[in-house]
């Protein structure tokens, strides 16, 4: 599976975290979830963490799977 890319995050002064994917809003985290995300994103690969938190981790293989013979008709 290809490495996730195109994610960015912005921690705001009100405690929320805004995660974008290719400059489009993917999700906004608030409260305890925002704090957990910030702790995790600094410890490991930020792109993979953001992909997992936004639910975007599945991207990349759907098109290939759609073309597989067992998924036809």
Features:
elongated; 22% strand; 73 residues; three-stranded antiparallel beta sheet; single chain; alpha+beta
Could you walk me through the main structural features you see in this protein, from its secondary elements to its overall organization?
This protein has helices spanning 31-41, 46-54, 62-66; strands spanning 7-11, 17-21, 24-29. It has 73 residues and is an alpha+beta fold. Strand 2 (17-21) and strand 3 (24-29) form a beta hairpin. The chain is elongated. The relative contact order is 0.20.
| Helix count, DSSP H or I runs of 4 or more residues | 3
Shape: elongated
> If you average the pLDDT, what whole number results?
85
Beta fraction of the residues? 15-25%
How would you write the strand order of the largest sheet? 1-2-3
Kindly name the structural category. Answer: alpha+beta
CA radius of gyration is: 15 Å
End-to-end gap? 25 Å
Order of helices and strands: EEEHHH
Number of strands: 3
Low-confidence stretches: none
In this structure, how is the largest beta sheet organized? 3 strands, antiparallel
Roughly how much helix do the residues carry, as a percent range? 25-40%
Summarize this structure briefly.
With 73 residues, this protein is an alpha+beta fold.
Question: Which secondary structure elements does this structure contain, and how are they paired or packed?
Answer:
Blueprint: E1 7-11, E2 17-21, E3 24-29, H1 31-41, H2 46-54, H3 62-66
Antiparallel strand pairs: 1-2, 2-3
């Amino acid at each position: 599976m290809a490495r996730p890319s195109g994610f960015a995050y912005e921690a705001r002064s009100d405690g929320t975290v805004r995660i974008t994917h290719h400059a489009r809003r993917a999700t906004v985290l608030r409260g305890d979830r925002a704090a957990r995300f910030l702790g995790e994103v600094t410890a490991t690969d930020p792109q993979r963490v953001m992909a997992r938190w936004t639910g975007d981790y599945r991207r990349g293989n759907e098109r290939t799977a759609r073309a597989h013979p067992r998924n036809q008709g």
